[in-house]
Amino acid sequence: MYGDGVDTREQLIESARELLWERGYVGTSPKAIQQRAGAGQGSMYHHFRGKPDLALAAIRRSADEMRARAEAEFAGTGTALDRITAYLGRERAALRGCPVGRLTQDPDVMADPELRAPVEETFTRVTEQLAALVAEGSANGELDPRLDPVATATALVAVLQGGYVLARAAGSADVYARAVDGALGLLAPHVRKEG
Amino acid sequence: MYGDGVDTREQLIESARELLWERGYVGTSPKAIQQRAGAGQGSMYHHFRGKPDLALAAIRRSADEMRARAEAEFAGTGTALDRITAYLGRERAALRGCPVGRLTQDPDVMADPELRAPVEETFTRVTEQLAALVAEGSANGELDPRLDPVATATALVAVLQGGYVLARAAGSADVYARAVDGALGLLAPHVRKEG
Question: Pfam families recorded for this chain (chains A, B) (predicted)?
Fold first, then answer.
């Protein structure tokens, strides 16, 4: 069994992430995580102090992934507007919802400062970076400079998070795509055509 | 104890609504509802077949309220744009989140067609009516007719739902207000100034 520790720890984190995404914190029992990970109770308590400790590792990883993906898009090639559009238009698993955003509906996650911190930091960071991109677009003449960067970025991130809510309510990913189309339509007249 | 039946039924529904809003379906036990309602187990099962039956009454009532409030705003006085702005700008308990939208994160609600129906119908109806208002504004020259009514309405409803998510993540209602400001800023150049 030597060398198995890392794999088990890893499987516990990945199983916790999936269950938090599917069922939320309150709906996820330690037993369910152990079963999905194929790990025993002793093994879970060897690697983690308990459910909050394991959930923290899982939430941090989901938050880090979300942030890293957005950062890669924001830092990509193309104009500021290209990168904003790529971020908004990226294909997402709309019906599964956002693994980080859904945690805001988990009262036990929101009530625990340690569990909430990665959720808060991720949305703050993504919104700040998108605002910087809007400001960049305004500064270089791609976007109307009257557009408030922070408010605009907040609205755009909200469209995506709300798009998940509406898609799940309708049972249709099309509704998510429609929300993004609507946001791009609202943005259109702010774009300054060159040449 | 005569005449107490209606009150108890009513208290059970209201308690279930509050708990579904605060803790979601999976986090709400029949016992917790009974305790909050000050009702016994026998009394709950006299009025309802069980938790799903009581939850359905609670969800229907929250959905009906949300729809009725939006309909009143959409049918209010003022131009189409006034009414769109009033709907977006209405003060909401941002940190509590949307009592209907939050149910989309409840796997047991989403998996039960009967429980999901009021959630789906409410968002469909509110989006349709907002789209009709955008179309009205386009038709009477208040709004740029190039604005796609359905996509725009979907994006605007999504901003509100996502605004709740971001406000809860940040622990600040200001973020919700900022998302609405951003949406109004995005809408601004689509407004056709008269005279």
Answer: TetR_C_13 (PF16925), TetR_N (PF00440)
